[in-house]
Design a protein that fits this description.
Organism: Marichromatium gracile (Chromatium gracile)
Protein name: Peroxiredoxin
Shape: elongated
Radius of gyration: 19 Å
InterPro entries: KH_dom-like_a/b, OsmC/Ohr_fam, OsmC/Ohrsf
Distance between the termini: 56 Å
Number of domains: 2
Mean pLDDT: 93
Largest sheet: 3 strands, antiparallel
Number of helices: 3
Low-confidence stretches: none
Order of helices and strands: EEEHEEHHE
Number of strands: 6
Helix content: 25-40%
CATH class of the largest domain: Alpha Beta
Strand order of the largest sheet: 1-2-3
CATH topology of the largest domain: GMP Synthetase, Chain A, domain 3
Length: 151
């Protein structure tokens, strides 16, 4: 896998995926005190977003294979960083909000555990410096008879 990051101006830069297949670009920027103009997320924010995307992808794949009827999945991430340089992540919490019909909480819990312990490269890598925790909530999207529109 290759990537390229090109400086634009101030603290702004553009990152481009190379031979990974996507060849997409993302603008990043630093904080105003370092010349940033808020043109894009900070690089550390992208690391956190990347971890969220990685674990969500795994969880959705596992739940699909388990024939769970998932209609939506949101991962809300909160992180703490060290006060001194290097300001690595020290704690990360991932809160999954999984919506669907008749979801089995044990299968959702297992999917999250499998991602955290076996499949999500990003969270396993970040786990070398950060304590990573997870929890989840289920939202049933089944329409009850009382909620159905009148005929």
């Amino acid at each position: 896998m290759k990537a390229r990051v090109k400086w634009l101006e101030g603290a702004a830069m553009v990152g481009m995926a190379g031979d990974a297949g996507s060849e997409h670009a993302v603008v990043m920027d630093g904080p105003p005190q370092y010349g940033g103009r808020n043109l894009g997320p900070r690089p550390m924010e992208l690391l956190l977003i990347g971890m969220g995307g990685c674990t969500q992808f795994d969880v959705m794949q596992i739940l699909r294979k388990a024939r769970q009827q998932v209609s939506d999945c949101v991962v809300e991430l909160t992180a703490e960083r060290a006060e001194r340089d290097p300001k690595v992540f020290t704690r990360i919490h991932a809160h999954f909000i999984v919506s669907g019909q008749g979801l089995d909480p044990k299968r959702v819990e297992r999917a999250i555990a499998l991602s955290a312990e076996k499949y999500c490269s990003a969270s396993i890598m970040l786990g070398a410096t950060a304590e990573i925790t997870h929890d989840f909530e289920l939202r049933d999207t089944a329409v009850s008879v009382a909620d159905a529109p009148p005929r």
